[in-house]
Amino acid sequence: MSNGADAIEDTGRRRAQRRFRNPIDFLEQYFGSGVGIIGHAIIMLIKVWILIARGKIDWPETFRQCNMIGLKSFLVVAITACFTGFAMSLQISRELVLFGADTAIGGVVSLALIREIGPITAGVMLAGRVGSSIAAELTTMMITEQIDALEVMHIDKVEFLVVPRYLAGVMMMPVLSVYAMFMGLLAGIMIASSAANLPVATFLDSVKQTILDRDFHVHFMKAFINGTIVTIMSCAIGLSTRGGAEDVGIATTRSIVWTMTLIFVFNFIVTSLTYAPR
Q1: Residue 42 to residues 57, 72, 109, 273: CA-CA distances in angstroms?
Q2: Please, which residues have CB within 8 angstroms of residue 231's CB and are 6 or more apart in sequence?
Q3: Residue 88 and which of 6, 26, 41, 261 are 20 to 30 A apart at CA?
Q4: pTM score, whole prediction
Q5: Is the pLDDT of residue 79 over 50?
Q6: CA pair distance 274, 174, nearest whole angstrom
Q7: Inter-residue contact 65 to 156 (CB < 8 Å)
């Protein structure tokens, strides 16, 4: 038995060595896979926009997805946003108090929440909770040949499966982003009042003096982009994966990695493009 196990282990080791012996082959395999996923996602997004423009929308399914994506994510987004607001406000309060700028705590905390923390928190939570679920569900449908059955019945899989999830994502992500911003702001007020002895009125007055309309524009732009990334990338990965039960886990992991990575990349791009001195 031990000889057989050793032989199997040696065979696996030799295969791994052959697979990764050439760094160029390694890069082509993984970089090419990434390019294929992004290309598939872009094509799918264009097709979704065309279907929406033609009015090909299943509203009952869209509202069901809104419940799955939005309402069932409120608790996890609230917990994450609260503790993020606690930590950020505590650190900012202590530093600004040392410099005698405690009246600026509200403006700094609210600006970070509106432009960065709110959209990022909601986006990352949806990538982990919703994106992985979408990828696993669609991959299972691919493996069990349910997608093939839709094609046999001449049902467009993008119209039937992707459009409702995309619309639900771009509708509910701004709501969750605003909710995360609001919960983080409440947490910031609590910490500023307890750690820096800052009155609530002073905190809110600093918020009013700091926040501009363009900050909310950036907030909703990021929320729309994050909703698009989470739904389209998850659907593209789910509908392009074939194989067995092992591939469901691979697709789920790939969905989380790609969506979170793209959320942070586009967050930086939007921030750099919309930055302007106050």
Answers
A1: 20, 28, 35, 22
A2: 130, 131, 134, 162, 165, 166, 168, 169, 170
A3: 261
A4: 0.83
A5: yes
A6: 18
A7: no
C-alpha 92/C-alpha 193 separation (Å) is 13
How many Cα neighbours within 13 Å face the side chain of 48? 25
CA proximity to 176, closest of 80, 255, 107, 269: 80
Mean pLDDT of 200-225: 90
What does the alpha-carbon distance between residue 111 and residue 113 come to, in Å, rounded to a whole number?
5
Neighbours of 132 (CB within 10 A): 22
HEC string of the chain equals: CHHHHHHHHHHHHHHHHHHCCCHHHHHHHHHHHHHHHHHHHHHHHHHHHHHHHCCCCCHHHHHHHHHHHCHHHHHHHHHHHHHHHHHHHHHHHHHHHHCCCHHHHHHHHHHHHHHHHHHHHHHHHHHHHHHHHHHHHHHHHHHCCHHHHHHHCCCCHHHHHHHHHHHHHHHHHHHHHHHHHHHHHHHHHHHHHHHCCCCHHHHHHHHHHHCCHHHHHHHHHHHHHHHHHHHHHHHHHHHCCCCCHHHHHHHHHHHHHHHHHHHHHHHHHHHHHHCCCC
The C-alpha atoms of residue 121 and residue 234 are separated, in whole angstroms, by 18
Closest CA to 28 of 39, 19, 38: 19
Instruction: State the pLDDT confidence band at 221, using cuts at 50, 70 and 90.
Output: very high
pLDDT digits (tens, 9 = 90+) for 135-174: 989 988 888 888 888 888 888 899 999 999 999 999 999 9
Residue with tokens 């990338």: 233
